[in-house]
Amino acid sequence: MVSSKSLAPILLPLAAQAATIPRDDTKGLQWGPCDLNTTLPVQCAKLAVPLDYTDKSSTEKLELDVIRYPAQKEPKRGSIMLNFGGPGQDGLTSMLSYAELMGPTTGGYHDLVSWDPRGTGKTLRFSCWPNDPSGYFGAMGGVLAGSADTATGRLWAEGEIIATQCHTQLGKTGELVGMAFAARDMMSIVDALGEDGQLRYWGISAGTTLGSTALAMFPDRLDKIVLDGVMNAHEYYNSFGEPEMVDSTDATFEQFMRGCVATPQNCALARNRTFEQLKTVMVELFDTIRNNPPVYNGTYVFDYSLFKGHIFNTLYRPASWPGLAKAMDDLLQGNMETFVLRVLGGGLPVQDQAILGIRCGDKKPRTTHLSDLDGAIEKYHKHSKWFWDWGYGYYMMPCAQWQSETKERYEGDFRVKTKKPVLFVGNTWDPVTPLASAKNMSSGFEGSVVLTHNGHGHTTLTQPSNCTNSYIQKYFLEGTLPAPDTVCEPNLPLFSAAE
Question: ∠ CA(445), CA(472), CA(481), 5° rounding?
């Protein structure tokens, strides 16, 4: 994490040049204490917005929960809206995790504002099986397609059950969530802030698709927009699955191995191996766990999908790579305990089935035939050898059979001239939002620039770079974009310290 002290030499000259943005506090959001377990100086408010923006005759309202992390520097420069991805990460609790990182990176002169998007928190929470004590429904879609020859067919059948259960449980709620409605909610918050009516925004991961959608829907209302860890919005809306997501997953996993052998003092898995030798060991380990899995504690089969899924998820966070290497080395020595405890430690918090309700409702392609997905599956294979089977249960099978559609969907081609140019930022080695997606999306937005963060993990936040942070900060404070083809290096190399 980059501290505000380390950025101070950058902050002071830029702060003097940035223009203040007046605020009218007499209307709109009424800020007060948050009902959250935190010592951060956050404030919360509620905002009533139309339940259905497409029904102009309706007076029904939806109450949004909004959170603000006040600017830590004076004079204030207005607000920056944040979305933390998913799609389906909430805004209130996520702000508690990100505020002290993103605030200094922006310069500290902006209020950071977020909200619980539709489908999350208490806002039309998308919960397809609220009463599932046995975990029967919750376990569906969890196996990887490569775990067995019959797994793809099983995932397709489970996808039908998931889609049916969600439609039965939630009915028309599925029509009222999605990126377009979220973009309109966000602009309603911007209006209620009582500032200049212009959107300043930093979206990460799936928040980049929300950002791209808002850019396309409101090109004349945008001030400064940073899209970090960019998803391919064309695939998000128009494809079975999103194969480009795994375009750099193999390269990221191989960087894990290269970084390990280059820093053996901090990587237990190195054991004087070369990269090629370690790669061979990994191929054999993956094959063993799939075809001849060991038994843990005399009770449980060491599951291939959990094994491979945990590796994939850990690729998001380079700081966790030494710990993963230790667990894999222990596994190779016959000790499964370390790896199992890591898996049981859990991952990112999830908002029930929000990721399904938002993503699946937004997608256009639907089918009742598994064979119609053959082309998408082939693309996954082309993009990745190691992780071609990732996420079918949540990114392809249920969505293809989804039984409701959002009432508003962006139908354009993301070829847009925005009021001000946009800053796209992509990691060279991001396991789920590859640099290729940042370049693909930037190509449609006139005047935009891609800043290459020559780092690892998911989004620029996971392997910090003072260089990257300084460009983001300069953009928010001055509106200045980096030159095309600018590349920033991370502050620390991989495996710089053991976990």
Answer: 50
pLDDT in tens, 275-291: 999 999 999 999 999 99
Two structure tokens written together for 44: 């919360």
**Which tokens in the block code for residue 79?**
């607000």
- The sign of the torsion formed by the CA atoms of 396, 401, 404, 405 equals positive
Half-sphere exposure of 192 (CA within 13 A, CB side): 24
Nearest Cα to Cα of residue 109 among 16, 243, 215: 16
Q: CB within 8 A of 482, min separation 6: which ones?
A: 423, 449, 451, 471, 475
Residue bearing tokens 């064309």: 234
The span from the CA of 381 to the CA of 246, in Å, is 9
Query: Is residue 380 predicted with pLDDT exceeding 80?
Result: yes
Name the residue among 250, 248, 203 with its Cα closest to residue 227. 203
pLDDT band at 26 (very low <50, low <70, confident <90, very high): very low
Q: pTM above 0.85?
A: yes
d(C-alpha 55, C-alpha 415), whole Å: 27
Tokens representing residue 99 in the block: 């505020």
Which of 461, 444, 448, 456 minimizes the C-alpha distance to 496?
Answer: 456
Task: Calculate helix-pair angle for 466-478, 4-17, nearest 10 degrees.
Answer: 30
